[in-house]
Amino acid sequence: MIPYLKSDYGRRQLQPRFGVDKTTLCVYTPIVMATHTKLTEYLEPAQGCICFNIRKSARAITQLYEEALRPTGLRATQFTLLVATRVMGTATINGLAKGLVMDRTTLTRNMKPLEKHGFIRITPGKEDRREREVTLTLAGQAILSEALPLWKTVQQSVVESLGQNRVTRLMKDVSATIELAQVG
């Protein structure tokens, strides 16, 4: 039987009736606990799961940005793709995927709606026809110009909420994490 978990502002807490203090747990903990009797054996991995906590943080921040971008109809991932395309100019899908630390097939799938709406153009490569090059269209530049002030507003709000020093430290930590993953 899976123990009852009470939701408290998005945090999962184990009820004290199980003989454990209220503790934030990883989402996978109920499944593990259902098959094992030693609850305390799983508390440390549940609390310290880096993958779970980074993904949870990413989902939370994505919700803020998507709410801000809602008037444009863009998702946070789409905004990111448009910005990357604008910054890189004409870029290959492989180059974008590498720069964004994304799987090529995931990137291609995320680009389909942008191409469908005419925000980007995907064409065969000039040097290698097997490659695909991505270019921001005039419509893409227009939607990006509409979205940018909305992004700036939510970005400033997050910076003000966390504080500039904390944001700077967070960005360094995120960069170090990305480097670690690329080396390994």
Give the C-alpha Rg: 21 Å
Total helix count? 8
Q: Which residue ranges are poorly predicted, with pLDDT under 50 across at least 5 consecutive positions? A: 1-24
| Annotation, overall tally of beta strands | 5
Overall helicity? 55-70%
What number is the mean pLDDT? 82
Outline: globular
Q: For the largest sheet, list the strands in their spatial order.
A: 3-5-4
Separation of the first and last Cα atoms: 38 Å
In N-to-C order, the SSE pattern is EEHHHHEHHEEHH
> Beta fraction of the residues?
5-15%
Summarize the main sheet.
Answer: 3 strands, antiparallel
Derived from helix and strand composition plus strand pairing, the structural class reads: mainly alpha
What does this entry look like structurally?
With 184 residues, the chain is mostly helical. It is built from eight helices and five strands; from the N terminus they run ββααααβααββαα. The strands form two sheets. A three-stranded antiparallel sheet has the order 3-5-4. A two-stranded antiparallel ribbon has the order 1-2. The chain is globular. The N terminus is likely disordered.
What descriptors fit this protein?
mainly alpha; two-stranded antiparallel ribbon; disordered N terminus
Write a concise synopsis of the structure shown.
The protein has eight helices and five strands; from the N terminus they run E-E-H-H-H-H-E-H-H-E-E-H-H. With 184 residues, it is mainly alpha-helical. It has a three-stranded antiparallel β-sheet. A two-stranded antiparallel ribbon has the order 1-2.
